[in-house]
Amino acid sequence: MSLPDNHPMSDLREQCLALLTIPDPIAKAQGVTALDLQGPLDTKIQIPETQGIPGRQPKPELVPHTRIKLLPLTTPQGHAALVHSITHIEKNAIDLALDICWRFAGMPEAFYREWLQVAKEEAYHFTLLREHLEGLGYHYGDFPAHNGLWDMAERTRGDVLARVALVPRTLEARGLDASPAVKTKLVSIGDMRAGEILDIILRDEIGHVAVGNRWYGWLCEQRGLEPVQTFEALRLQYKAPRLKGPFNLAARRAAGFNEAELSALQ
Questions:
Q1: Residue 62 phi, psi (nearest 5)
Q2: What residue numbers bound the domain in which 90 lies?
Q3: Over pLDDT 90: what percentage of the chain?
Q4: Is the overall model pTM greater than 0.85, yes or no?
Q5: CA-CA distance, 231 to 265, in Å (whole number)?
């Protein structure tokens, strides 16, 4: 079903698509923050795709991850580059939450409401990190970045099961594993504020991954699929990386991974 002529333009899923195309990340984050999560929402309408998804400015320059140079953390530039890399992840996370809301029609209403809440929290994380980066004397866009998260979103654009399996439950869940070590690095050079922000992000990201896990389980049940075997099949089909430890098992359990899934990881 496509959009009828009299369809209200205030629909939340349409607003997500409009926000996704905004190039300015600050304006995008502000727009997401202003969303009314209780607003009208049509779960069934197939929304036509527009150009410019996601909206981006010329900076940061997007390069293959192999071209990202690791600068010494003890230098101001290296310190800022690490904070910038986390800021870029959170900016991508806003886009991912917006994209899953507008793109996939026919899910229960709770699916969209939950991802809208995720989008708001990602906008908050991005804002905290961007402001901290500016306090270090740099701006978002001053360093190159890679496009790995959005690349997987593009690959899984045709199947909501693949999207929830391989973006929130796989690539974003890596943040649960990486967060303690990154926090230790930043605190070790005296950046206590970054450590506080990472604590906020880890707390919220456990909830975001849990949303992915919950809807992955629901979709597997709806389609009569076994979750662990299905995940491995999707990983191979969409060329997702095999995850390597160490894993933050406590955070993963809090996010809803069961023992069979954790055993399969290891």
A1: -95, 125
A2: 12-265
A3: 88
A4: yes
A5: 11
